[in-house]
Amino acid sequence: MTGASARPLAWFAVMATLLTACTPAVDLTETDAGHPIATSSASTPGDVATNPSTTATQSAVPPPPAPPPPPAPPAVPQAFALNLYQEGDFVPQYTFDWCVAASIQMAHNLIDDTGGGSWASSAQQSELWEMARARSSNSFNGANPRGWAQVLTEVGMGPYTVVSIATYEDTLQTAARAIAETGRPVGLVMWSGRHAWVMSGFESMGDPAQFPEFQVTGVNVLDPLYPYGSGQWGPSPEPNSLLSPEQLSTQFVIREPRRWSTDLPTGYLLVLPVAAA
User: Fold this and answer.
1) Predicted model pTM
2) 196, β-bridge pairs
3) CA 90 to CA 144: how far, in whole Å?
4) SS3 assignment, position 64
5) For 120, how many CA atoms within 13 A lie in the half-sphere containing its CB?
6) pLDDT one-digit tens code per residue, 155-205
7) To 5 degrees, how large is the angle CA 187–CA 122–CA 106?
8) How many CB atoms lie within 10 A of CB 118?
9) Which of 256, 47, 84, 247 has its CA nearest to residue 178?
10) Three-state secondary-structure class, residue 207
């Protein structure tokens, strides 16, 4: 019995050895029931595994907008000057009554820079005075501002209108702005309604086209009574004089209402150029 049982045991040992040699080695730690084992196609060192859908989404996102530029600093008024005057534009009044007619001649000369000839004759001045007087509301007082404006318009330098402004500063701004916008001079009703000057230009802090509240610092004027002036109101400035607002205010004052009949309120009177409609 002992010898017989030893043979089967030896046989089983031989068979176990043979089976072990024929079976491939398997690392049970890499297996999972019902699932494949990872292959050797994993990324090599230095490669980064990417998700195509994630990459596409990230590349479609726009970059953040650039910050807006800082606001520009506000403009600062600078010195500005405009003057229509050229040598030969001044015309004296040939009588003590013809200041309006002489001012009309000077307005023509200031506007006409084509070299077509100056208006300066005594005969023409007489004719213009009669025209302005005929178009004035009270011819007893000679040619008044309404006749002055109407003649300027009729002879081709208009349109002009008469305005009355309550404050001195607003009056100077209105006159300067009109010259800048139209390129034509302004009539100044002087001596409380008794005399006529022409404003040919101005100086200011700020260009009227850019600054609604610019400050007029000087006024270029032509007084047809030069060189005589007035014992009451003062001497006539030389043609094309640049007067300060304070100097001008000694002769440019509020119109006296009784000088001529009008529906305009009391104020500083201008014979003002306006833009053509």
Assistant:
1) 0.74
2) 189
3) 21
4) coil
5) 10
6) 999 899 999 999 999 999 999 999 999 999 999 999 999 999 999 999 999
7) 25
8) 16
9) 84
10) coil
